[in-house]
């Protein structure tokens, strides 16, 4: 079942009724029933696999808990050796479980690649003419998401950060919670389970806020992302294209990905909110990032935190990591050496993220690119700091000089001096009056500073956008060759001769027929207005205005008008129905 | 207590919201639906007629709405005729139209167009045919009509309306918002006749008249039978009409089958393609295209249809001057102002 | 507070720009990121010969100099 479908809405509606009719203690049962119904739609094979992973990780969690208890007992008794042995046993079983579950995911995801390699090996070794039969493997719905989530649970149990769940059904709910299973976010046991066990009681404003969030998500996905999809598919599947079109395609791909993924997230978070469960954000307006590092803290947040908690820290704080750090400090100097484990871990993580997206050489490029960027940023940070200090000093000096230039005596003192002169007094005033900079000069300096800051922010944003745009060519194309070809193509062949026709075709219209250009223009207009609305809302959120909450609390007629507008936009301008192929969410097949 | 108040407020607002939303969406559907005079207009206008005022109800395809000139039939024969037709109307939609019509009207004669017998598709592929059902007021009849139009797996998409209709926002103009529709500019007194102003030269269909029967589409047959049965149940005499058209060479074997089926129910009719009838229609100047009579053709045809009706159904009243039938008079008056050449000669 | 002075010196050495003395929401406010935490952990490992478990890399344990000191003491006490 896709969260875009009518079935999902019907399921949600039924669930809402049942959910709030049950006493709070039993509400998790309705959530579990709904999750199972949701998943069963995707097929029994997937459900069986999900059940298998759940069982394995649940048992592992219990075992981890038992190990830790035994370790504590041994420690308390003073038997350090025994405690250490048990700790090793725990780590060993943990590694086994993690390898098993993640291995399962990897095997299914990369089945094609594995088949090709295995087949090549088989043919080479046996010189047989007939290749091995390929297994037809179905990818269970939300494979990566429930794998990561359950692995996180097991590791948390092993680390003592979570109490193992004794009830297998409640644990199953954690793994399979239906709003999250299709595309995340990947939540931790501590964040999610308490809410699932006792969801918040019904609050009208929260309920309405959830509904609004869902609508907003549908708007982003169906009106914006799917419209942009026409342009992006045209560019990725086209051959000879003018450079400006490729650039347009790359930029719209980034926006489309954001609208698609964050739209899906909003639907998921909205639906959960209506049920009384608060799910963490996965996107925080990533295109307002001023550096690549910040971008990765605002884009696909939960993937980042998962990799950080379960891969980055373990790698860098392991014995190997510390040894690397010591070696690095000896060889490369204190600062660089200390940063070395982090740098290596970054390369590994971005390579894995690349591989997670696409199983070809593009992943290597993707990983290397971000690894170099982020570590490079670390390394040149000291240099940038000195530059910034010097710039700041220059600023201060310049400001002081400007203010000096315009200093004069305040009016009152001048008047006093005049009076004294007129009165013929030859007395020298006791105190030297302080020279003041007139207000308008101070104002101008402040404006100048503001403009300067604005320009710096704008430049930083631009830099981040360019740096983020480049790897797009290698993240979503079929291979480095195509990525490189498209990248080269962006800078060549800026042929504007066929602009109108090209634009008509890319938005999915046919060039023939009267009014094709008018129709295409209408579509572009809708897209433009939608993007402006998206930008406005995101800007407000960035300036800490909780638009959703404000709307939920506003006067009901205002809210109704906004809701009607959103509903009509989705119904009228959404890409669904007779003319469109319901564009699947981009991130559900991971 | 406070919580109870909050919750009560919420429920009241929720119900209000849902009601307002339903009204808004219904109006949106109305605005988006194309108001073609060959689409939803005939049935929407039908509901505005006074009860039991239609004496001759015509249900059929474009051949019918182009050929049956209701104004001529009124002016020269005093017959109150209404064309409840649509472009390419298949028998499954015709059946629903009849079902709806019989709720408020008890016509003395029902004319069924034979043309739908030549359609070979199992389901309506053209969006406009399905959209024509949006005019039906009774939701259960409308849904039945949609279900009859499309295969079962597609039903939900069409029943929910928006999947099919939503991309029509490009075609919306100022006129789309007006309720009720203007019937192609003809106003409320329109009786379903659509003038085809073009003239195309055609030739008399050259064919060897046979009795060969080509099987018609099973679903068309099924619903044709249902129409005949329904008319029989209500005691309404049915007349099967084959409208003249230059394309008849293609149609004639299907018409043979249809007439054979109609015989089983004791229903007969007139196939006006038969040259022996001496209709005095000129294929070179009385047709707008391959299928439809033009204005002049419709006048000639309707004069003949009127006299045939009077001959075969002598109980048909002459409603000229009667109270309650003023709309037919005003429709005819308005029409003859536009087409004065066709005014009947003073005797 | 000799221990605190020593810790502050170590922290300053790891990252000069952050005001470890006064800030109490180092992680929550994003003043130090995961790279910084790594460097701090490496520095603490060097200085106190303690190996901070991954499980203890939580915002609560690194939000202020006092919290870091408490974590260090916990590890020292455990040995």
Mean pLDDT reading of chain B:
92
Low-confidence stretches of chain B: none
Helix content of chain B: 40-55%
Structural class category of chain B: alpha/beta
Shape of chain B: globular
- Write the CATH architecture name of chain C: Orthogonal Bundle
Strand order within the widest sheet of chain B?
Answer: 2-1-3-4-5
Show unreliable segments of chain C.
Answer: none
CATH superfamily heading of chain C? ACP-like
Helix content of chain C: 55-70%
How far apart lie the N and C ends of chain C? 22 Å
Structural class of chain C, by secondary structure, is mainly alpha
What is the CATH homologous superfamily assignment of chain B? SGNH hydrolase
CATH class of chain B: Alpha Beta
Main sheet properties of chain B: 5 strands, parallel
Q: Strand percentage of chain C, roughly?
A: under 5%
Strand content of chain B: 5-15%
Describe this structure in words.
The complex is a heterotrimer of chains A (590), B (347) and C (79). By secondary structure, chain A is an all-alpha fold. Chain A contains 23 helices and no strands. The two termini of chain A are 15 Å apart. Chain B has 347 residues and is an alpha/beta fold. In chain B, strands 2-1-3-4-5 form a 5-stranded parallel β-sheet. Chain C is mainly alpha-helical. Chain C contains 4 helices and no strands. Chain C has helices at 2-14, 34-48, 59-62, 65-78. In chain C, helix 1 packs across helix 2 (34-48). The longest helix of chain C has 15 residues, at 34-48. The chains are: A mainly alpha (590), B alpha/beta (347), C mainly alpha (79). Chains in contact: A-B, A-C. Chain A binds chain B through residues 6, 202, 204, 207, 519, 522, 556, 560, 563-564, 567-568, 571-574, 576-579, and chain B through 6-7, 9-10, 13, 17, 20-21, 24-25, 28, 32, 127, 156-157, 160, 162-164, 166-167, 169-170.
């Amino acid at each position: 079942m896709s969260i875009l479908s009518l079935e999902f809405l019907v399921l949600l509606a039924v669930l809402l009724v049942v959910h709030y009719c049950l006493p709070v203690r039993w509400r998790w049962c309705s959530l579990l029933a709904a999750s199972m119904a949701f998943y069963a739609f995707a097929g029994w094979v997937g459900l069986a696999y999900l059940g298998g992973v759940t069982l394995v990780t649940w048992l592992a969690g219990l075992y981890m808990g038992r190990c830790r208890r035994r370790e504590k007992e041994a420690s308390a008794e003073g038997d350090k050796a025994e405690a250490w042995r048990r700790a090793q046993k725990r780590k060993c079983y943990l590694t086994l479980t993690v390898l098993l579950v993640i291995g399962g995911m990897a095997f299914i995801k990369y089945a094609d690649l594995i088949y090709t390699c295995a087949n090549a090996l088989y043919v080479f070794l046996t010189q047989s003419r007939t290749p091995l039969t390929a297994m037809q493997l179905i990818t269970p719905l939300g494979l990566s998401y429930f794998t990561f989530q359950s692995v996180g649970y097991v590791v948390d149990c092993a680390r003592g950060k979570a109490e193992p769940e004794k009830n297998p059904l409640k644990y199953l709910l954690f793994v399979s919670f239906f709003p999250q299973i299709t595309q995340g976010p990947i939540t931790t046991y501590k964040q999610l389970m308490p809410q699932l066990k006792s969801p918040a009681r019904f609050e009208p404003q929260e309920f309405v806020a959830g509904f609004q969030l869902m609508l907003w998500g549908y708007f982003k996905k169906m009106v914006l992302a799917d419209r942009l999809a026409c342009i992006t598919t045209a560019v990725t599947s086209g051959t000879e294209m003018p450079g400006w079109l490729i650039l347009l395609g790359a930029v719209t791909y980034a926006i489309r990905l954001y609208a698609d993924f964050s739209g899906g997230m909003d639907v998921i978070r909205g639906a959960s909110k209506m049920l009384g469960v608060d799910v963490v954000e996965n996107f925080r307006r990533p295109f307002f990032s001023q550096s690549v590092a910040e971008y990765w803290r605002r884009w696909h947040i939960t993937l980042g935190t998962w990799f950080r908690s379960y891969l980055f820290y373990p790698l860098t704080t392991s014995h190997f990591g510390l040894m690397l750090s010591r070696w690095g400090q000896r060889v490369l100097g204190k600062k660089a050496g200390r940063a070395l484990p982090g740098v290596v871990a970054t390369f590994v993580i971005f390579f894995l993220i690349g591989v997670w997206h696409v199983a070809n050489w593009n992943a290597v490029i993707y990983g290397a690119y971000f690894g170099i960027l982020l570590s490079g940023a670390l390394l040149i940070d000291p240099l940038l700091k000195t530059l910034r200090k010097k710039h700041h000093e220059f600023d201060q000096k310049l400001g002081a000089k400007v203010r000096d230039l315009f200093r004069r005596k305040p009016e009152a003192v001048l008047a006093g001096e005049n009076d004294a002169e007129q009165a013929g007094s030859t007395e020298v005033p006791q105190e030297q009056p302080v020279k003041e900079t007139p207000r308008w000069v101070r104002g101008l300096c402040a404006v100048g500073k503001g403009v300067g800051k604005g320009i710096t922010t704008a430049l930083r944003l631009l830099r981040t956008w360019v740096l983020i745009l480049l790897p797009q060519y290698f993240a979503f194309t079929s291979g480095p060759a195509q990525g490189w070809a498209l990248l080269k193509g962006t800078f060549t062949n800026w042929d504007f001769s066929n602009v109108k026709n090209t634009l008509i075709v890319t938005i999915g219209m046919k060039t023939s027929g009267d009014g094709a250009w008018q129709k295409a223009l209408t579509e572009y207009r809708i897209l433009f207005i939608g993007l402006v609305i998206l930008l406005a809302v995101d800007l407000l959120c960035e300036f800490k205005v909780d638009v959703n909450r404000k709307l939920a609390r506003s006067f009901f007629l205002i809210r109704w008008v906004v809701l009607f507008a959103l509903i009509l936009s989705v119904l009228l301008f959404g890409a669904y129905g007779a003319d469109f192929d319901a564009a699947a969410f981009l991130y559900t097949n991971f | 207590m406070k919580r109870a108040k909050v919750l009560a407020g919420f429920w009241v607002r929720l119900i209000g919201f849902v009601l307002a939303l339903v009204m808004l969406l219904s109006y949106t559907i109305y605005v988006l639906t194309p108001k073609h005079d060959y689409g939803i207009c005939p049935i929407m206008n039908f509901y505005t007629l006074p009860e039991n005022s239609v004496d001759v109800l015509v249900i059929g395809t474009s051949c019918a709405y182009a050929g049956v000139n209701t104004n001529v039939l009124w002016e020269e024969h005093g017959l109150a005729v209404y064309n409840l037709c649509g472009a390419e109307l298949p028998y499954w939609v015709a059946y629903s139209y009849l079902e709806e019509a019989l709720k408020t009207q008890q016509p003395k004669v029902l004319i069924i167009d034979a043309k739908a017998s030549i359609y070979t598709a199992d389901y309506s592929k053209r969006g406009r045919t399905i959209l024509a059902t949006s005019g039906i007021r009774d939701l259960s009849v409308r849904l039945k009509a949609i279900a009859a139009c499309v295969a079962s797996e597609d039903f939900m998409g069409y029943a929910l309306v928006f999947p099919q209709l939503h991309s029509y926002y490009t075609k919306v103009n100022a006129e789309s918002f007006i309720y009720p529709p203007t019937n192609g500019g003809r106003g409320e007194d329109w009786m379903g006749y659509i003038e085809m102003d073009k003239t195309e030269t055609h030739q008399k269909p050259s064919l060897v008249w046979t009795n060969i029967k080509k099987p018609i589409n099973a679903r068309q047959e099924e619903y044709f039978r249902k129409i005949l049965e329904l008319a029989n149940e209500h005691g309404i005499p049915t007349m099967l009409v084959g409208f003249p058209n230059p394309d008849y060479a293609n149609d004639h074997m299907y018409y043979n089958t249809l007439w054979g089926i109609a015989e089983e129910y004791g229903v007969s009719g007139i196939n006006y393609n038969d040259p022996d009838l001496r209709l005095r229609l000129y294929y070179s100047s009385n047709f707008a295209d391959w299928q439809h009579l033009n204005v002049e053709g419709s006048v000639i045809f309707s004069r003949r249809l009127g006299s045939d009706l009077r001959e075969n159904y002598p109980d048909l009243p002459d409603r000229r001057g009667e109270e309650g039938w003023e709309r037919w008079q005003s429709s005819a008056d308005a029409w003859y102002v536009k087409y004065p050449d066709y005014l009947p000669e003073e005797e | 507070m000799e221990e605190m002075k020593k810790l502050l010196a170590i922290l300053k050495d790891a990252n000069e720009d952050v005001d470890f003395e006064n800030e109490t929401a180092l992680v929550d406010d994003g003043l130090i990121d995961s790279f910084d935490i790594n460097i701090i952990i490496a520095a603490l490992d060097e200085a106190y010969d303690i190996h901070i478990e991954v499980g203890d890399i939580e915002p609560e344990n690194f939000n202020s100099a006092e919290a870091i000191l408490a974590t260090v003491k916990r590890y020292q006490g455990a040995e």
